[in-house]
Amino acid sequence: MQHFGVLAGRLLMAHLFLLAGLDKVQGYAGTTDYMQSHGVPIWLLPAVIALELAAGLAITVGWQTRIAAGALAGFCVIAAILFHRDFATEPNMVMFMKDFAMAGGLLVLAAHGGGRWSVDHWIARL
């Protein structure tokens, strides 16, 4: 059951970033507007999309899991601080907490790796 739990956790966390990256590609103009409204330079958007998609895919298959999870954990903390630090509205507070919770889960994944059902495990056995 442990191996299934690690796989399911990886897939659930990765799913969020894959969808977010694809959403940013499809709504590029709206995302740049949102970033600008928070004082974040729009030239960062391609890097954010690349991180979400590449690290999301890496975690999905369990390749370089520790690095990908660590990078996304840092991204979550930064995103929470930049975009959701205004607790005047409940949605912002919930999004802030979600970002920190995701960072926590990703840090656990970074500490323990992708588990037995991962490319990392398969490579280590070679």
Automatic annotation (TrEMBL):
Taxonomy, superkingdom: Bacteria
Membrane topology note: Multi-pass membrane protein
Compartments, record wording: Cell membrane
Ribosomal protein among keywords: no
InterPro entries: DoxX, DoxX-like_oxidoreductase
Keyword Lipid metabolism: no
Major subcellular site: membrane
Positions of transmembrane segments: 43-63, 70-88, 100-119
Key words of the record: Cell membrane, Membrane, Transmembrane, Transmembrane helix
Family statement: Belongs to the DoxX family.
Name by which UniProt lists this protein: DoxX family protein
